[in-house]
Amino acid sequence: MRKLGRFIGVVALLTAAFTLGACGSDDDSGSAAGSSAKPAASASAGVGAPTKTHGRECTADDIKVTGGFGANPQIKLPDNCDPPKQLVSKDLVAGSGPGAAAGQQLTMNYSLVTWSDGKKLDSSFDRGKPFPLTLGAGQVIPGWEQGLDGVQQGTRRLLIIPPELGYGKGGNGIKPNETLVFVTDTVAIGN
């Protein structure tokens, strides 16, 4: 199982390449606490293969998460709806204090489950070591940059990230057009 940190380096390079190719597209958008959805371009569900559809997109409420803030979460994905085509963010445990903004240091714990197979791919909880990042510095995938904007210390947040805001065409253990489901705990904001 590869660490998110390794993914981040590749994603930062891909993001930089995409940004140069897109001539300055702006991904900056705020995220309010609670449930929100953010537009993203639609992804083809598979490479050259027809996909089965359930007729409705899943919501944050369709994802079952057990465990409170600080505990290693158990994430169960539904099998009766399709992955969302836009970023979904929902606070499962409310935090307190000012919301995080670009340029601030965050210390995060996370667990990642891939939509296509419902399996855990990575977890800082399993390693027992939170993950540091600077919000807005391009160190993480766009789904984290957007989905963690405004997060408060002590928040457990569910992020459902479509491929365009994740790893797109895949790589480093992520399948092409994969939807990612993260449960994140904001351990600290600031140094």
Automatic annotation (TrEMBL):
**Could you tell me which residues belong to the region Disordered?**
29-55
Please give the InterPro entries that the UniProt record associates with this protein.
Answer: PPIase_dom_sf (IPR046357), PPIase_FKBP_dom (IPR001179)
Could you tell me which residue ranges the PPIase FKBP-type domain spans?
103-190
**Superkingdom field:** Bacteria
Q: Where is the composition biased (Low complexity)?
A: 30-49
SUPFAM superfamilies in UniProt: FKBP-like
Which GO MF terms does the UniProt record name? peptidyl-prolyl cis-trans isomerase activity
Q: Which EC class does it fall in?
A: isomerase
Signal peptide residues on this chain, from the entry's feature table: 1-22
The answer to whether the entry has keyword Signal is: yes
Catalysed reactions, as listed in the record: [protein]-peptidylproline (omega=180) = [protein]-peptidylproline (omega=0)
State which Enzyme Commission number(s) the record gives.
5.2.1.8
- Does the entry feature the keyword Translocase, yes or no? no
Q: Which family does it belong to?
A: Belongs to the FKBP-type PPIase family.
Under what name is this protein listed?
Peptidyl-prolyl cis-trans isomerase
